[in-house]
Amino acid sequence: MEKRSKTIKYILGVLAITGALAVASTASAKNPKSVDLEIVNNKLVMLTSERENDCPWDEPREKGCIKVKRNNRSEIYFHLKEDDCTLEGGKKWELNAIYLGGYNAKRKPETHGFDETPDADYDKVNSDFGITDRSSGQVKLTEKKAKKLTINNENHHKYVVWYKVEAICKRSETDPDPYITTFDPRVRNGGGTG
Predict the structure, then answer these.
(1) What is the bridge-based pairing of β-strands 186-190 and 179-183?
(2) What are the Cα distances from residue 173, in Å, to 30, 42, 84, 146, 167?
(3) DSSP secondary structure string, 65-95?
(4) Residues 6 or more apart from 163 whose CB is under 8 A from it?
(5) How high is the pLDDT of residue 11?
(6) 179, 94 Cβ separation under 8 angstroms
(7) pTM for the model
(8) Taking CA 43 as the corner, what is the angle to CA 38 and CA 48, rounded to the nearest 5 degrees?
(9) What is the structure's pLDDT at 1?
């Protein structure tokens, strides 16, 4: 009986260690990045510093920039911390969408999307992020809540792309023209996971 009890404890221990290792390897494979934002005076403000998310590189950096290292995939989480909307008829700001643009651009693009980007370069971004609309650069969301958006970055290719986070404040549930505010730093992909 005692031998059987020791065997069961041993098996349970091995299973616990195996489960912990599986969870740890899954978490490291996802290489999560987190971006925190808040609303200040009805403007979207970046809280995540330029030194977070493996961001340091030899170019000018901006708050919210993200670097995904070579041979890593990443889930990128956007969190809205403060969300009060004091504009006429508004109640709360909600995160709405993520857009990409400015393929390998040194400066923030005036508009996002990939209409003027060569097909081969657009295909790289699309395979990494899953673009739902080429003209706007809108990215497929894997999770959407009022205060949280999540996207995947497969990071197969090496390039820099700019992202824009969009928050909206509806005046009513059927509001055709909600208030919109955005913030837009860069993502640098290291590539190499294909």
Answers:
(1) unpaired
(2) 35, 19, 17, 14, 15
(3) -EEE-TT--EEEEEEE---B--STT--B-EE
(4) 66, 98, 99, 100, 139, 184, 185, 186, 187
(5) 55
(6) no
(7) 0.81
(8) 35
(9) 57
Q: Which two tokens stand for residue 151?
A: 């996207």
145: left (phi over 0), alpha (psi -120 to 50) or beta: beta
Res 20: pLDDT: 44
Q: What is the mean pLDDT of the chain?
A: 84
**Matching residue, tokens 């069961």:** 8
What span, in angstroms and rounded, lies between the C-alpha atoms of 165 and 182? 5
Q: Measuring CA to CA, which residue among 144, 73, 131, 143 is closest to residue 99?
A: 131
Residue 81: the pLDDT is 93
Point out the residues of the chain with pLDDT beneath 50: 12, 14-29
User: Alpha carbon of 164 to those of 4, 40, 63: distances in Å?
Assistant: 59, 17, 12
Going by DSSP bridges, is the β-strand pair 148-153/74-80 parallel, antiparallel, or unpaired? antiparallel
Tokens standing for residue 5:
């009890």
> According to the model, what pLDDT value does residue 182 have?
86
Q: How far apart are CA 109 and CA 185, in angstroms?
A: 10
Q: Looking up tokens 């505010």, which residue turns up? A: 181
